[in-house]
Amino acid sequence: MSTPNRVYLARLAGVAVFDPNGDQVGRVRDAVARMRATQRPPEVVGLVAEMPMRRRIFLSINRITSIDPDGVVLGSGTLNLRRFEKRPNELLVLQELLDRRVQVEGGQAGSVVDVAMECSRGGEWTLSRVAVRQHTGRLTRRGHLHQVDWDRVHGLGAVGDNRGTANLLAILEDLRPADLANALQDLPDARRNEVAAALDDERLADVLGELPEHDQVEILAALDRQRAADVLEEMEPDDAADLLNELSPPEQDVLLDLMEPDEADPVRQLLRYASGTAGSVMTSEPVILPPDATVAEALARIREPQLSPTVAAQVFVTRAPLTTPTGRYLGMVHFQRLLREPPADLLGGIVVNDIDPLRTSTPLPEITRRMATYDMVSMPVVDRNNRLVGAVTVDDVLDHSLPRDWRDRDPAFPSSATDDGTLDGDDE
Question: Which PANTHER family match (predicted)?
């Protein structure tokens, strides 16, 4: 089943959704597009599917491998069954645009009968074309149907009571997480929580990691508990553990129980370690490969876009199992060494093991000293049985070595937002 470059969304209404095995899991009910501050057409971020018992859920466009009038096929059988809720900067295409009265540039008024989304070479889907039926003013005569580019149709802008939040989100959409965190700190508390709640789970998780602890806690507390658990699942386990450490033990238990078990387990493990030790600051998901993996396989692994630069800098080599806690730790290979070796060589032949790994109880000052001594970007952490349980990266060390309030905005710092929650300066 092939996916055409352009898909008319009204034709997808009611189309079956299949998992990778070909089993039907639901039916398409709408498409979700994200409005932008500029004149660029909205980005399509996913579809709304209706499951059994009339439950509607969100399907990310990135998890869909095929779209056509015969069916939508998912690339994974795992579904997030949280009930779909539209956010302020989002548009339900079929619900909000079909039958909308619009004006075609240089032409007459008409009504929207369909909207097409189109995929760019970079894989981004956007609303590209609009099918508009011209108004004739006669009850017995149907007007001509025109297909025109999105930017030639007037009257397709965002609607609803949250237009201010939608516009602000559109302005902030291209900011780095750290810059977006700074912008949120400039907003009044209520507006900050409103904007944060409107971000998708992955984006909010990235931003929370860049905020001071007190802001993290306040934003998380403003979410309903299931949404808070979903956001924690998107965070790195060490960041999620740091945030949960700011909450009371009963609240920690509630959120951990709401998380998927495979996401909650590494966070629970990190919460067991004493504060200020390697165990409490490490990431439990470094890059781990067996000794019989090739250099080419290691290079492919560290190219994965979701890996941070510090995590991708080193490959740790262990015996099976390869998830923490692993089998016996054998050593590590820096990415520069990988670049210098033949692609077919095995990691077991180039592994470095002349630097003693950290223990889970190693205190932060000792970690800092050893990383500085050996010019390390990350160091392995092992348990008493010499099993790899994680790695401490240089950004982990910096986060826990700086004063607790280092992320707080300095009042003297030039503000990017006014007191009423709008941004100053250029909107581009």
Answer: MAGNESIUM TRANSPORTER MGTE (PTHR43773)
Q: What pLDDT does residue 406 have?
A: 56
To the nearest whole number, what is the mean pLDDT of the chain?
84
- What DSSP letter does each residue of 359-394 carry, written as one string? ETT-BHHHHHHHHHHTT-SEEEEE-TTSBEEEEEEH
C-alpha of 85 from chain center? 17
Q: Which residue has the tokens 């501050």?
A: 37
pLDDT for 97 equals 87
Q: Are 356 and 269 in contact (CB under 8 A)?
A: no
Residue-by-residue DSSP string for 237-276:
HHHHHHHHTTS-HHHHHHHHHHS-HHHHHHHHHHHTSPTT
DSSP annotation string for 152-163: GEES-S--STTH
**230-254 average pLDDT score:** 91
- Domain of 302? 288-401
Q: What is the pLDDT of residues 60-119, one digit of tens each?
A: 998 898 888 788 998 877 777 788 888 877 888 988 888 888 888 877 788 899 999 999
**DSSP calls for 209-235:** TTS-HHHHHHHHHHS-HHHHHHHHHHS
Q: How many domains does the chain have?
A: 4
Q: Quote the CA–CA distance of 230 and 256 in Å, as a whole number.
A: 10
Ramachandran sector of residue 221 (left: φ over 0; alpha: ψ -120 to 50; beta: rest): alpha
CATH number at residue 299: 3.10.580.10
Q: What is the pLDDT of residue 212?
A: 86
